Amino acid sequence: VDSLTTMPSGAGKISCLNAVVLGEALASEVDELVFPSHHFSSQALVPSPQKYLEIYQRSIDDPAGFWSDIASQFYWKQKWPQPAVSENLDVREGHVYIEWFKGGITNISYNCLDRNVEAGLGDKVAIYWEGNDLGSDATLTYSQLLQRVCQLANYLKDVGVKKGDAVVIYLPMLMELPIAMLACARIGAVHSVVFAGFSAESLAQRIVDCKPKAVITCNAVKRGSKPIHLKDIVDAALTGSAQQGVSVDVCLTYENQSAMMRESTKWQEGRDVWWQDVVPKYPTTCDVEWVDAEDPLFLLYTSGSTGKPKGVLHTTGGYMVYTATTFKYAFDYKPSDVYWCTADCGWITGHSYVTYGPMLNGASVLVYEGAPNYPDSGRCWDIVDKYKVTIFYTAPTLVRSLMREGDQYVTRYSRKSLRVLGSVGEPINPSAWRWYFNVVGDSRCPISDTWWQTETGGFLITPLPGAWPQKPGSATFPFFGVQPVIVDEKGVEIEGECSGYLCIKGSWPGAFRTLYGDHERYETTYFKPFPGYYFSGDGCSRDKDGYHWLTGRVDDVINVSGHRIGTAEVESALVSHPQCAEAAVVGVEHEVKGQGIYAFVTLVEGVPYSEELRKSLVLAVRQQIGAFAAPDKIHWAPGLPKTRSGKIMRRILRKIASRQLDELGDTSTLADPSVVDQLIELADH
Ligand code: 6R9
Known about the structure:
Its EC number is 6.2.1.1. Belongs to the ATP-dependent AMP-binding enzyme family. Keywords: ATP-binding, Ligase, Nucleotide-binding. This is acetate--CoA ligase. By secondary structure, the protein is α/β, with parallel strands linked by helices. The protein is 32% helix and 22% strand. It is built from 22 helices and 31 strands. The strands form 8 sheets. It has an 8-stranded mixed sheet, sandwiched between helices. Helix 9 crosses helix 10.
């Protein structure tokens, strides 16, 4: 493992792989296999390892044929010419590009809605909506959803949104969020959903980058008992973006009466329009804009190892086929299921597995507006019983936080309807896995621990419930068509039982195609570190039985409650504070959040440390990125450990942050080794 802590050849910013050590510890802790019940397997889409291997083999031997057969189940205005895939993933052979079904003409919104209605699902519930407050709820059938989507699509067209234009969506989990996504897709507009927990500055940054024709938001939302004025945040962002030369003409605002009335909402005549005043007046049918499979569907910004978020671009056809197929198999989907994914549509999970994947399958999807512990820690299971949820998909951080509250919040509900559980966002530790399995799922429901990324569009490594025995904490095996490889620091594939960097060989239909406006960064970040492969940024080990154990990021990205945050983003927010001279941020283990944010801060000469200053530094991060990125700890640093060339040695900072003071390693290459002692002295100040 030690050798893995060095820089791989050609890699940009790969730092420490201590996570791999953790992975090995996990793997040795668990030697138990959890078998699916005979009852479950016998009804499963993939009932045995043999069946999985048979399908998997075909998907690898003939990817174009395999995915073409699946793609044919969707509606195409015009079929793609053969072959289904064209790609170059090897930077040594020219520019990287990936194309699936190019030349095929389709529309994903049509496939989610019209196709299902035509197949007789018009009266089936598409969305069960549960509000933050107990007793507030609503439903939309597939026909009703189609009508709502058409009305909004007509409105957007009317205000000049055309195929290829960007639309920024800044909404909480109201039904209007998936409606807005599907309306954009219907007219070929490119949606860019920004999680409604992001600050005005982050929103402005995204608006400046993609220059949207319109912004869609709401006036306010209640999280728990507290109303948050989203429209104020949007106003500030639009002022900010205008100052940077990007002005937006239309701000469509949904009046969310449960949180705030329109009278108390600030308003800019001419630009701001109430959704309820205009959208319902439009016709409930709207012609589809037919698009090429490779036309862009959406942009989603995600954190990387520099301060500037990356605009991950997904296209239409491959993403459609991939999200639909992964959803179906990883959750063993049946038409009678009621599916609930707790993710917000502001993240990739909400794109692929709240909106597109499930709706392409005609599933009934539950959308919950509020916090999972409001009014108390039993809310999730209350909702599960209320709607008879059969598939429940969430993040390990929620599992851990509910586990701490005690079993009684779970066991006072029946949960009999549950059949499959899912986990996403970060590695799930075996003890949380067991609690989830034994207590939440009554030892009856397989857990799909789905490993994937914003960039991958859909699941890459995931159990197929009923197919394999599970190991608590392992994401198990690759999905169909996916070839994970583990490489060493030189980029050489390692076979058998091993640990290293997780890469993917070949492409899959759901892969992202570029970073918006920066194809060079796309190639440099993902394809140059290990030429010939897509590099995930994650460490992984494979055990003797071939199970995969994801061990966390190996770059300067931290994962807080399943949210990706670049250390550089937090650092740049901190140093924007007038009294902060320098900052270095590392991730530390956190009992509930998985990782916490630990910031070393050097103040401007002569400025004294104070509790007040600590608070205002944290506030700077909340304001610039969002509350979810607020540092858990500010560690005063008279100086930072740097090499003679001025590079901060984060390896040492990580050890200090986790108080592993006897493992600091060699500090002799530091320009000033005494800095380390000063930091240790100040650790608990
Ligand atoms: C879907 C999503 C991606 C990063 C990824 C990895 C971590 C996600 C995981 C997991 C272990 C899992 N991650 N799922 N690690 N097991 N089941 O979360 O996308 O926000 O882009 O984050 O999350 O580190 O590289 P995204």
